[in-house]
Amino acid sequence: MNEIHLELCASDGWAEIVERDIVPWVLEGIDPGADVLEVGPGPGRTTDVLQRSFPHVTAVELDDELARQLQARFAATNVRVVEGDGARLPFRDARFTAAFSFTMLHHVPSVDLQDRLLAEVARVLCPGAVLAGVDSRDSDDFRALHEGDVCVPVDPRTFGTRLQRAGFARVDVDTNDFATRFRAWTRTT
Question: In 3-state terms, what secondary structure has residue 59?
């Protein structure tokens, strides 16, 4: 993540948007259960909201420096921070009741790696569990924010099919002017 983007994602203004708009939109109408996984928390503004919402939160962060900062910040809380790769999750099958991805998939450097990450998330979810998330829509402004950074936007027209190929049985993908929301449930048997 470039410095400007990292600064924005760590800001109080972003935290307000996350709490007021993004997390409620993603959680609307779903039952995540009590033991949830967050993939790619970045500076942790979404993790702050999840911490207050769920008894057990595990956050997996690839960036070693961000992971260390999150580990220190969430020490002795209901959040466990693991430094790791979402495409190679260090958890047993059917471990979590839900998983979340908030505006991070576009930071995964290829569609193939995004798909591997989605398949790994499906693997670690309990039967009938949900992956819920949001990612920004592609635009000139969005690309400008990612100058010098990884930026592989999710295409909402094909994302449902990609989720199904990754192992999800029921998929819901919808968009607004700025973002694509997705919810995908694992098979129940």
Answer: strand
Q: What is the pLDDT of residues 106-137, one digit of tens each?
A: 999 999 999 999 999 999 999 999 999 999 99
Q: Which of 23, 46, 61, 27 is nearest to 130 (CA)?
A: 27
- Lookup: tokens for 159: 């994302």
Q: Which domain holds residue 61?
A: 3-186
User: Per the structure block, which two tokens stand in for 9?
Assistant: 């994602």
For residue 1, pLDDT beyond 90: no
Specify the length of the chain in residues: 189
Q: Is 60 exposed, middle or buried (0-12, 13-18, 19+ CB in 10 A)?
A: buried
CA distance 138 to 68: 30
> Residue 44: left (phi > 0), alpha (psi -120 to 50), or beta?
left
Q: Give the H/E segment covering residue 8.
A: helix 3-10
- Strands in 35-39's sheet, in edge-to-edge order, are 79-83, 56-61, 35-39, 96-102, 125-136, 179-186, 168-175
- The SS3 assignment for 3 reads helix
Kindly report the pTM of this predicted structure: 0.94
What is the dihedral sign for C-alpha 47, 48, 49, 54? positive
Separation CA 136–CA 153 (nearest Å): 7
> What is the domain count for the chain?
1
CATH of the domain at 18: 3.40.50.150
